[in-house]
Amino acid sequence: MALQSLDIKQRSATTTPSPQARQTVEIAKLIDVSACIGCKACTAACIEWNDIRGDVGNCVGVYDNPVDLSADAWTVMRFTETEQNNKLEWLIRKDGCMHCADPGCLKACPAPGAIIQYSNGIVDFHQENCIGCGYCVTGCPFNVPRMSQKDNKAYKCTLCSDRVAVNQAPACAKACPTGAIQFGAKEDMKDYAEKRIADLKERGYDKAGLYDPQGVGGTHVMYVLHHADQPKLYAGLPDDPSISPLVSLWKGAAKPLATLALAGVALGSLFHYVTKGPNEVSKEIEDEIEREDERQLREEAK
Amino acid sequence: MTNHWVDIKNADLVFVMGGNPAEAHPCGFKWVIEAKKQRKARLVVVDPRFNRTASVADYYAPIRSGSDIAFLSGVINYLLSKDKIHHEYVKHYTNASFLIDERFALEDGLFSGYNAEKRSYDKESWKYQFDKDGYARVDETLQDPNCVFQIMKKHYARYTPEVVTRVTGTPTDAFLKVCEYIAETAAPNKTMTNLYALGWTEHSVGAQNIRSMAIIQLLLGNMGMAGGGINALRGHSNVQGITDQCLYSDALPGYLGAPLDADIDRKTYLEKRTPKAMRPNQMNFPQNFPKWWTSLMKAWYGKEATPENDFCYDWLPKRDLSYDVLNMFDRMYQGKMSGFVCQGFNPLASVANKKKVGDALAKLKYLVIMDPLVTETSEFWKNHGEVNPADPASIQTEVFRLPVAFFAEESGTCTNSGRVVRWHWKAVDGPGESKGDAEIMAHLYQTLKHMYAKEGGAFPDPILKLSWPYRIADEPSPEELLMEISGKALTDLHDPKDATKLQVKGGDQLASFGFLRDDGSTACGNWIYSGAWSQAGNLTLRRDSSDPSGLGQTLNWGFAWPVNRRILYNRASADLAGKPWDASRTVLKWTGSAWGGNDIPDMRPNAAPEEGVMPFIMNPEGVARLFARDLMADGPLPEHYEPFESPLETNPMHPKNTKAKSNPVSRIFKGDLEVFGTAKDFPYVATTYRLTEHFHFWTQHSKINAILQPEHFVEIGEELAREKGIKAGDKVKVRSNRGYIKAVAVVTKRIKALDVDGRKVHTVGIPITSGFVGRTKPGFLTNTLTPAVGDANTHTPEYKAFLVNIEKV
Ligand code: SF4
Ligand code: SF4
Asked: Which of A22, A264, B133, B767 is the most exposed place for a label (fewest CB within 10 A)?
């Protein structure tokens, strides 16, 4: 069972009530994009700590290597060149799981205990319970989880839950040479962000601000952005992310029914996955969810 | 660095030009971010590319690679003409008031005394005027037309903003904006730190690039100040250490000039290198040269070195010419060398013109490689296809590979850019048969000694009589070596002023170079490290990070050379009376009886301000040199010269004088001249640089680094890409007159075409990512393209500005 320091708040596809007796401080990682130099020390630390090694890829004409998130790359740097107010800017954003307070992945997941949320805010995947349906991929508004080609299970950043459990900062935060990654209580991180935002405003970034999107209940990975009015500038960070209403609906209103029905869907999806491969599965599953939802809506309407 | 890494946090302005610290020094760069966060410092970057450092800068200005002197001269003109200088500082702490020989002149790009045939200067007319007592003449009003200040005004007036833009391609408004940022730090309580690296040194005018910045920092009064200085960011964790030990042919440890053929005996040698004070009351610290040199000889030859045999002066090699890498490889290329020991060095990938290097190595009888990893050089003979099309059958060179231990597999010290020497401990044993460098060298020495003893030889003494006091002859320990470098008393030392007073007991480690003697009673392997291991023990072991001043001086952290001083020239951080220019950042102050504050004084500790002892104690003038008199090969003031491969036909500063197009005194070897390209065939300016993801040619062997940066690429601007039909991700071929490479194209907004002297100049950026061995995708070596011509003073090759063409493959 979980460590005392990692009380579970939510568990996918589970109705058993969560422990309530202890109070846990909510934590957060703050990524100050204005202090990040894109050195990828965080990426290296992540690969090392989590013992994942992807393939040596190719240069695809930009600095982004690894090119995308994968089961072997839980964080990647995304480099964007843009001109703002007649000034060239090279925006470098560390991408990875945002550890949403209201996690779409967990909501969408039909496998009991495959995705859990700790009371400190970390959203963790427990691969031994994952059935490989890929619903989390669809459910995530940030396009984060990735299916492994090796075991057909979903992987993503754990916010170093193993380190945090023993009072250590995540490996990326520890490795970052410029202090662009800060880690601590979410409240403290917000205070720190405020200082950074004031500094940026003083330097002429009028729209500097904190990215802690309320559409997903806030996140436990937050960004300080120079252009908080345009998150999209940062390699397509969603302006206003939210969980697909359909996911909410079938996990919310129709919960008991959905659980039953989903087991069937999941099996079907797995079949799809095995025969068609991971790349096409998302769309398929999405369609299936939609069909399922429509069916449920119709039934409810009756 | 004149200052140190942590001190960057004290700056008001961080000015980065000729370097890219966010890319190449991400860990040290934390102090730049700290300055921004804590002091609201501004970060300004001038570079041919909008780079990783620029990505977090407050202001960025582009520049054509190879035109830095024009830019910096424009800044100097701005400061002088707008009177944005620190007057007191300039007047008292620099040679602004010194009078120069009346014959000194700059005519059409050439300084007085030029000899075109020898490509060198007769520097007689660059010297000071001296009075009858032998002191330099000065005019404290700074009005005399021959005083340095007036000469500079005239020299720099030519570098107007319009001229700067024409030569550098930097838009005038951007240039002026940078000037404004810099000029603000002329205020006595404002400082600018300058961070530079190979972006300044690797030019045929490299040393003068740095001189230009030194002039700016002196005019602004930023030398000796916390948050100021000229800060060279060194590339390797211990490259400062090897520089200090002077593993070069032109210097002995501690930057002591090595003897030349003309220095026929010790007396001649010492006299030439021991200057007389040029102004009254000055410390003229290099007057101690004989003590440093004699103590070095005692460390090397022990009791064999005696006054009678000139302390073995005759055993030192005497140079006939410079033996820098370009010269070395040229000689090898000419077949004049039979063997080469290559220790921690990958010349096939790093010396200019790969083809020439490969051909040179093929002429050796034997090549010894000492390296922890497989290097390209060790496989120069092997056919790796297009990236190394060697023909093993035609190469007779015998190659020995000796695996050596990595830094973490050995104990010892590393010296960082800030001159801080720190001990580190061995973490694990090296794999297999690998051995430490010192062990291999010791074994080699023992074998040679044995052979000399048995078989004799032409000149056995320097080998046979070398002092070798180590407990295990085949394995000198790092502790023994550091103690030897630091120095000890060989006999009891008595106070020179009072012979009854015992200063140091014979056999004791010395506390500093202040105790060194020239009579053979002290031994010291490197005077500037003296005191690193005193009677108090190994000071490089210290790890006390307490920082009472809050300035990051941490005097009990490791040992900084010299004498644990953290900021060089720190006496200049206070006014003539000894009051700090900025009390909130006090480095040094006069307490009434002695110098105190937050650093080891760069001054005689009891020199009262009234004595008029000036802060630049290593100069016989006592003050800093705006005008370098006869000390530089290519002029007492920097002048803009074009790179040897330039997109322009002439030097826009001197369009009529072909002799002044490029550095008129840079050395050019026959054969290298023939392979210079012209803008007609190679219209684009190329520049080379490192990437964060890789450290030289090591990390290409590490899978994680290979994942982060897998493959060689070149960067071009969007406009050039359009013209050439190149898209991001395309494979391209880049050619210079020396060869070609193929790599992936990165098309970017971050490199812009510049308007230079009426024409459009495109830049092609070529990183040094990896080579053809290791885990990264096998690729071409960047130095296939680079020209073998270097700076006139240091002979550092011009890797940062040359010509190429590019096409899609
Ligand atoms: S970012 Fe995606 S994967 Fe991470 S917690 Fe939120 S929904 Fe789940
Ligand atoms: S380690 Fe820090 S500075 Fe480097 S890329 Fe990651 S977040 Fe940015």
From this structure: B133
The pLDDT of residue B616 is 98
Nearest CA-CA partner of B275 in B266, B267, B258, B287: B287
Nearest to B56 among A34, A65, A81 (CB): A34
Helix, coil or strand: residue B631? coil
Residue B251 pairs with which residues in a beta bridge?
B257
Partners of A66 on chain B (C-beta within 8 Å) are 707-708
pLDDT of residue A268: 42
Write out pLDDT tens, residues B717-766. 999 999 999 999 999 999 999 999 999 999 999 999 999 999 999 999 99
Query: Chain A neighbours among B 13-72 (CB < 8 Å)?
Result: 22-23, 26-27, 29-30, 33-34, 36-37, 40, 50, 52-56, 58, 60
The answer to whether position A118 is within a domain reads no
Contacts of B22 in chain A (CB under 8 A): 37, 39
The ipTM is 0.94
Is the per-residue pLDDT at B283 higher than 60?
yes
* Residue A23: HSE in the Cβ half-sphere, 13 Å Cα cutoff: 1
Chain A CB contacts of B749 below 8 Å: 81, 83, 88
CB B234 within 8 A of CB B240: yes
Domain assignment present for residue A238? The answer is no
Q: Is the pLDDT of residue A20 over 90?
A: no
Find the ligand nearest to A46 CA: 2
Q: What is the pTM of this model?
A: 0.94
Same domain, A227 and A253: no
Considering its fold, how many domains does chain A have in total?
A: 2
Average pLDDT, chain B: 97
Q: Are the CB atoms for B349 and B325 separated by under 8 Å?
A: no
User: Looking at the domain assignment, is residue A196 inside a domain?
Assistant: yes
Q: Which of A49, A93, A178 to mutate to test the pocket of ligand 2 (most atoms within 8 A of CB)?
A: A178
DSSP string, B40-96: --EEEEEESS--TTGGG-SEEEE--TT-HHHHHHHHHHHHHHTT-S-HHHHHHHBGG
Helix (H, G, I), strand (E, B) or coil at B557: strand
Nearest ligand to the CA of B32 is 2
Containing structural domain, residue A176: 4-100+160-233
Domains and CATH numbers, chain B: 6-232 (3.40.228.10), 259-306+478-539 (no CATH), 325-412+428-464 (3.40.50.740), 658-808 (2.40.40.20)
Tens-place pLDDT, residues B34-50: 999 999 999 999 999 99
